Amino acid sequence: MAELTGKTALVTGASAGIGRAFAEELASRGFHLVITARRLERLQELQRELAARHGVRVEVIAADLAVPDAAQALFDELGRRQIAIDVLVNNAGYGLGVKYFKTSWKEQADFIQVMVTAVAQLTYLFVPQMAERGWGRIINVASLAGLLPGGPGSTLYAAAKSFMIKFTESLALEMTNTGVTATAVCPGFTLSEFHDVNATRPRVEKMPKLMWLDAHTVASKGIDAAMAGRVVVVTGALNKLIATTMKHIPDAVARRVLLRQSKNFRHVD
Fold first, then answer.
1. Looking at the annotation, which residues are catalytic?
2. For residue 268, is it within any domain?
């Protein structure tokens, strides 16, 4: 781990859930941090906690990645602070949890901005500097949903996560022999605030407990995979089984399975 001393990680969506877990896990491994999200007070609380517990430097930048110029502003601010980013964790995200036509286009446009455009832009901005230094890690927090057929409810969610996986795979190939790697982390159901934000908590609580992982397990396995240079990692044995099984059954059958099961975790009425 000595080669990681002094390196800095940027974690988006760090105020809660998987993003917070990534920040905590990276700090425990000696990384300095830049944490960003919309909720400044939560970020400042996490800053104090991680700095005191692990003795690392923690910078806070409040940002809403749904704003089109937020990614560039974040990059520019780090330039002003003279902070080089060695690990980029594209984690910020959410699910709308409702049918496509029951939302406004503004909600869908913001979703695409956060889940697709900001991921691509932040990567575009930070990776060249990593390549120049000869070392870097991109961690894109995707989802098991990106490996499965799209289901009803939160219609762009699986599409966005599938984009992240394919984007990561292509990026990993482009960065061969540069010292920079890209990893897509694909968790399934994870214990976090995600389902409170999209108001599906009453539904998902009916899911069997064996379907769930805690956020720290997801983060730890994701970081291990990134440091090892793995490109796609599915967290959890059951999730790996689901991904493999769905890959080997006919698409029409897989879609019917998703249709039946979606009512357990999304608003599909």
1. 157
2. no
Number of domains in the chain: 1
- State if pTM tops 0.70: yes
Q: Is 247 exposed, middle or buried (0-12, 13-18, 19+ CB in 10 A)?
A: exposed
- Asked, for residue 107, whether it belongs to a domain, the answer is yes
CA 231, CA 151: separation in Å to the nearest integer?
Answer: 25
| Contact status, residue 45 vs residue 53, Cβ threshold 8 Å | no
CB 149 within 8 A of CB 262: no
Tokens of 94: 């959410």
Q: How far apart are CA 229 and CA 50, in angstroms?
A: 26
Domain range for 9 is 2-262
User: Which of 158, 71, 153, 66 is CA-nearest to residue 110?
Assistant: 66
DSSP element (H, E) containing 12: strand 8-12
Exposed/middle/buried for residue 23 (C-beta within 10 Å: 0-12, 13-18, 19+): buried
pLDDT at 207: 57
Between CA 115 and CA 65, with CA 262 as vertex, the angle to 5 degrees is 15
SS3 182: strand
Report which residue type is found at 88.
L
Mean pLDDT for 181-208 is: 65
User: 17: phi > 0 → left, psi -120 to 50 → alpha, else beta; which?
Assistant: left
Q: What 8-state DSSP symbol labels residue 234?
A: E
